[in-house]
Amino acid sequence: MRAVAFEGAKGLVLLGDRALVLLRDEGVPWAGMWDLPGGGREGAESPWETLGREVEEEVGLGIDGAEVLWRHRGESAVRPGAVVWFFVLRLGEGAVRELLFGEEGTAWALMAPAKVMGLERLVPAHRPRLERYLALAGAWGRPVAEEAWDAV
């Protein structure tokens, strides 16, 4: 994927059929809420490079071999008019053994994506993105036809 003007990238990371969620630190936006891996762009990173770096920093996982199920270019929930990328990707269930919690966040959990959607304290921007993915894919963990992806 080529680099485009954007602020950051987040993603629903599936390990097998479970989603990885992170509990946000105090003193940051949406403190104490459940979040998805990802964060702000550094330098000339592409959206995929940004997400890869963030996932590695936050939970020690490499995503190069991940199956990308969907990607979406959208508007930032923090800065109206700014661009952010959202991915849905899947790693094998065995990646759980490689999880190494980093210095960001206070906890992590693996749960069914439907349970993530039901979290009362889910970062608000994620619910509509996940709803859009589910509407396009028809079920959790299924790929979306590339024609329904946003162009990179």
Structural key phrases:
152 residues; alpha+beta; Nucleoside Triphosphate Pyrophosphohydrolase; seven-stranded mixed sheet; 3 helices; 28% strand
Strand content: 25-35%
Succession of helices and strands = EEEEHEEEHH
What is the domain tally?
A: 1
What is the CATH architecture descriptor?
A: Alpha-Beta Complex
Layout of secondary structure:
Elements: E1 8-15, E2 18-23, E3 34-35, E4 38-40, H1 47-59, E5 67-75, E6 83-91, E7 107-111, H2 113-117, H3 126-137
Parallel strand pairs: 1-6
Antiparallel strand pairs: 1-2, 1-4, 2-3, 2-7, 5-6
Describe the structure.
The protein has 152 residues and is an alpha+beta fold. The chain has a single domain, classed as Nucleoside Triphosphate Pyrophosphohydrolase (Alpha-Beta Complex), CATH 3.90.79.10. Helix content is 20%, strand content 28%. The chain has helices at residues 47-59, 113-117, 126-137; strands at residues 8-15, 18-23, 34-35, 38-40, 67-75, 83-91, 107-111. The radius of gyration is 14 Å and the shape is globular.
